[in-house]
Amino acid sequence: MxxxxxxxxxxxxxxxxxxxxxxxxxxxLSQQLGSVPVQxxxxxxxxxxxxxxxxxxxxxxxxxxxxPCLERPEDEVVLGITEEVVRQLAPRVxxxxxxxxxxxxxxxxxxxxxxxxxxxxCTGFAVQNGDIRWLRPVYGGKAMAYMCARGLLQVATIRSxxxxxxxxxxxxxxxxxxxxxxxxxxxxxxxxxxxEAAEERGLSLDRAEIIVSGGRGMGSAEGFSILHELAxxxxxxxxxxxxxxxxxxxxxxxxxxxxxxxxxxxxxxxVGISGATQHMAxxxxxxxxxxxxxxxxxxxxxxxxxxxxxxxEKVVPPLIxxxxxxxx
Amino acid sequence: MHIVVCLKQxxxxxxxxxxxxxxxxxxxxxxxxxxxxxxxxxxxxxxVAIQAKERWGGQVTIVSIGTKETIQSLxxxxxxxxxxxxxxxxxxxxxxxxxxxxxxxAAALRKIxxxxxxxxxxxxxxxxxxxVGPFLAEELGIxxxxxxxxxxxxxxxxxxxRPTESGYEILEAPLPCLATxxxxxxxxxxxxxVKGIRAAMRTPIPTWTATDLSxxxxxxxxEGRIEIDEMWIPQREIRCExxxxxxxxxRARNLALRLRELGLV
Lengths: 328, 265
Ligand SMILES: Cc1cc2nc3c(=O)[nH]c(=O)nc-3n(C[C@@H](O)[C@H](O)[C@H](O)COP(=O)(O)OP(=O)(O)OC[C@H]3O[C@@H](n4cnc5c(N)ncnc54)[C@H](O)[C@@H]3O)c2cc1C
Ligand SMILES: Cc1cc2nc3c(=O)[nH]c(=O)nc-3n(C[C@H](O)[C@H](O)[C@H](O)COP(=O)(O)OP(=O)(O)OC[C@H]3O[C@@H](n4cnc5c(N)ncnc54)[C@H](O)[C@@H]3O)c2cc1C
Fold this sequence. Notes:
By secondary structure, chain A is of the alpha/beta class.
């Protein structure tokens, strides 16, 4: 029976959370469509030992491609393998993470080549009369839509953190099958240089329990330095809105929002951020959102749990002092 | 080098959500009195194209599928420094999905003919499917680089800078090719100069219809593979607890206490 096929790029050290989230989507979809088998394509170098974990999290079969050419593959290498596998397996649904590689490149091109329908950046779905309706935000999250992908095959890219991975079930069994990788892929676009940023980027947003984020209201890079101080006393990571990233006050990898990182810390403190839906799309799943803004009418006061009206110049320094006093 | 930028005009995406309305039957946003603007990543793409022209010469052409009102956005792109603009306008173009949009743009690009590089936004600022760019590259059978921020060199081939998690990478692509553009600190769109605006208003903007592009309903319709089934505005307001206090200092202290009470710090 035509399957649901999920994708995952792993590393030696771990399986990305998105790979497990896709399996949760696949299992629930499988149940609603009537016991459709779930296959997981697992790519990477040195990832073999993690393959059973994909079974434990919901796959019925893992197709493993563990190969040196997959350590940091070019987009077109992943596209080539993906296209090959999808043509052979002829699944009914292909689920991909909505990240730079799959959402920005592989998904759209794959759908075009296979004449498949595609819905990107999905946050949910509903099955109605055997049809899948994909839920996704539109207009920067101000509206939601159900979209349908027409075609024998459909592709959906899934927004990170929209689904919780299923708990691992070590008793689940399934088959792990190696798939051959063509010796050489010719690519037209090639990476000729990789440059690691020299500057200290601080704690990564993905792991932080607390995130302090600044916006255009911080006014300058100097303004931003006080947020780093606040982050230090809280053991927090520092993020920013798009203007803050465009201005170079935070690196782009620390941009929070629909087109940046989707984060879900237990505490998100937004300073000098107006609360645009495109920003809140990335911060909205935080357990508690605190807003510090000088404008009592700023939209963020309708989206935050706790608010302080005031200029950050007057609010943040005493806030830092209070936390320091609590510590000592 | 001849760079073509695909530009979509949209209703201002910064409209705050309490003023945002949709038509649930047409399944699209209601314009109201909101301004029409260049989709933000497309404005960034125009900036990238003009920077490239300033460094290595060449010309920049803008194409947009839109309406008469889109001419205003095309003028803006010309005023920023683009050399030419073409409006693709036909009732047939309106009710099409991303596949249809790519097909229309591909027909226009073939008619333009001598392009070297096509730039698209990473995603439009309204429906945000992020599909038209890669689809267009496939439609034309040219290489596709995604999520790049700028060009770093150009001589027969292009080198493109792509931001990554930990820094950036340089991609090399043969020409002609297509790139989807994301923003970074190097490509913040410029304002148009007064001189640029004057010159732009004098630049004629040709309109190409379905007939000009030899497209008919069959060519566009059969590609309907993405359907918008339903659209609504979710209820999202949270009751925000405002921290009290006479002075900013007192409010700050009360915030710290409240966060400790909640066990958050
Ligand atoms: C009346 C109406 C009916 C519609 N019906 C459908 C439908 O049934 N199914 C559906 O999927 N969508 C429908 N749409 C929306 C649809 O036309 C989208 O705009 C289209 O799918 C493109 O997707 P996107 O805007 O998300 O562009 P993206 O794929 O996100 O755009 C990426 C990039 O492509 C380029 N680009 C996109 N659009 C244009 C353009 N118009 N001109 C020049 N360059 C452009 C830009 O560079 C842009 O940054 C409808 C719209 C209207 C107004
Ligand atoms: C397709 C698309 C994708 C986007 N993706 C993202 C994204 O991923 N992430 C993102 O962040 N944005 C994104 N945006 C941009 C988004 O729409 C907003 O423009 C942006 O989030 C606004 O950033 P901001 O809140 O920092 O700035 P502004 O909206 O300018 O707000 C600044 C705030 O600071 C306050 N302020 C000023 N001075 C002070 C002071 N002294 N003390 C306290 N407060 C002060 C002001 O009252 C104001 O509320 C996207 C837009 C589009 C169209």
